[in-house]
Amino acid sequence: MLDNKLTLKLLKDKYSVCRLDKNNEIPKWIFDEEIFSITKTEDELSIVCLQDKISNDIICEKDWKILKIEGPLDFSLVGILSKISTLMANNKISIFAISTYDTDYILIKEESVDKAIKVLESNSYSIFYQ
């Protein structure tokens, strides 16, 4: 388990988690975005992106804020997401996590962000704002 606490950055924009059919094409506009995540499985195509770009015909959950764990994080580190997700679960805060090669991103519904930050800060995490 990770013993030293990390620094997280709250990104300023609101994001959506979208679900498309597995056979849908990836929207071309997504590639112009600064931050996005695309995951395709045998069941679906999921896209995380700025919510102001989403058309009304796409199924999505809106109003997510992102806490970025400042990295890069070494692959040998263990328990980063586990510790944060446990803190959030213990405080009844839902998350959606995205991992990249260098770091992790924690999506939290906008109405829960202030509570999540208080929980993290009370557990020695540092938070700063974009």
Mind explaining what this structure looks like?
The protein has a single domain, classed as VC0802-like (2-Layer Sandwich). Helix content is 16%, strand content 37%. The chain has 2 helices and 8 strands. Strand 6 and strand 7 form a beta hairpin. The protein is globular, with a radius of gyration of 15 Å. The relative contact order is 0.26. The mean pLDDT is 91.
What's the quick description here?
The chain is an alpha+beta fold.
Q: Characterize the quaternary organization of these chains.
A: single chain
Helix content: 10-25%
Number of domains: 1
Order of helices and strands: EEEEEHEEHE
pLDDT averaged over residues = 91
The major β-sheet equals: 8 strands, mixed
Uncertain regions: pLDDT < 50 for 5+ in a row?
Answer: none
CATH topology: VC0802-like
The DSSP helix count reads 2
Going by CATH, the homologous superfamily would be: VC0802-like
Q: Give me the secondary-structure category.
A: alpha+beta
Q: Say how many strands there are.
A: 8
β-sheet strand percentage: 35-45%
* Overall spatial form: globular
Corresponding CATH architecture: 2-Layer Sandwich
User: How far apart, in Å, are the first and last alpha carbons?
Assistant: 28 Å
User: What is the class in the CATH system?
Assistant: Alpha Beta
Radius of gyration: 15 Å
How does the SSE layout of this entry go?
Layout: E1 7-10, E2 15-21, E3 37-40, E4 44-50, E5 59-69, H1 80-90, E6 95-99, E7 104-109, H2 113-122, E8 126-129
Protein name: ACT domain-containing protein
InterPro entries: A9CJY8-like_N (IPR049447), ACT-like_dom_sf (IPR045865), CASTOR_ACT_dom (IPR027795), CASTOR_mTORC1 (IPR051719), UCP008459 (IPR016540)
Pfam families: A9CJY8-like_N, ACT_7
